Amino acid sequence: MGYSVRPTGRLHLPAADDVAAATAIRAALAVRDGWFSEEICPDAGTVADLAWVGAAQVVRDGDWIEFARDEQGDAKWSEQATAFYVELAPFVRAGTVSCTGEDGSTWAYAYADGKITQQGWNAWDCSLEPFGEPVYPWRET
């Protein structure tokens, strides 16, 4: 069970910052709900090792990382998936990761100079920003 997501995109995350980014991600995952735990993934030391938490597969290309759907695992969204993308922000110089949910909903995370901006409505948690309050566009206000 869960909400399947297909991420795609490319981020400029210098290779020299990869381990620091992974360390920040691991700390954030520890306090959020999801499938990651230190017991099942004790040696996850790079962003690529942790990408499955973000429903993604990551391949490094120099100082860029490229995102695709995790075809090997169970690409489901969770609070930890959101945390994965948020915690990347301080280490990313530029780029965008687009997410397509199982129902066709789309949203994206745009990165610039260490900051993240969500573009669109995340259909999993109904937010317009990472960890934001739910917004239900089909309801009248």
Any chance you could write out the topology, listing elements then pairs?
Layout: E1 5-12, H1 18-29, H2 47-50, E2 56-61, E3 64-69, H3 79-88, E4 94-101, E5 106-112, E6 115-120
Helix pairs in contact: 1-3
Please provide a written account of the structure.
With 141 residues, the chain is α+β, with helices and mostly antiparallel strands. The protein has 3 helices and 6 strands. The protein has a 6-stranded antiparallel β-sheet. The protein starts with a strand and ends in a 21-residue tail after the last strand. The mean pLDDT is 93.
Rounded average pLDDT: 93
Total helix count? 3
Helix content: 10-25%
Shape: globular
Strand content: 25-35%
The count of DSSP E runs of length 2 or more, i.e. the number of strands, is 6
Uncertain stretches: none
| Global structural class | alpha+beta
Query: Mind telling me the C-alpha Rg?
Result: 14 Å
Sequence of strands across the biggest β-sheet: 2-3-1-4-5-6
Give a short overview.
The chain is an alpha+beta fold.
Entry keywords:
141 residues; alpha+beta; six-stranded antiparallel β-sheet; 3 helices; 6 strands
